[in-house]
Amino acid sequence: MTTIGLDSAARLRRGVRLTYDKTRETYVLLFPEGVLVPNQTAASVLLLCDGVATVAQITAELGIKYEGVRAEDVQNVLTRLEERRVVEWK
Prior knowledge:
Elements: E1 9-12, E2 17-21, E3 26-31, E4 34-36, H1 40-46, E5 50-54, H2 55-65, H3 71-83, E6 87-89
Helix pairs in contact: 1-3
């Protein structure tokens, strides 16, 4: 597992796609092994994972929309997503 710092940048792994499911009215994460329905927090983080934005930048961007966003929380979400093998570090 990668050590995630504030300057780390994540992106969706090859073959993984985040899309909005109109039927469920939520985001779904499609990957070769199946489908994952992320909660709103995880979806907000995933939308910003472009391989360029760092954890610090993602935290700042989310802080504009939501109150009380902490870098540790973003790191925890990304760690769980890495464990599920849907994000990778650039």
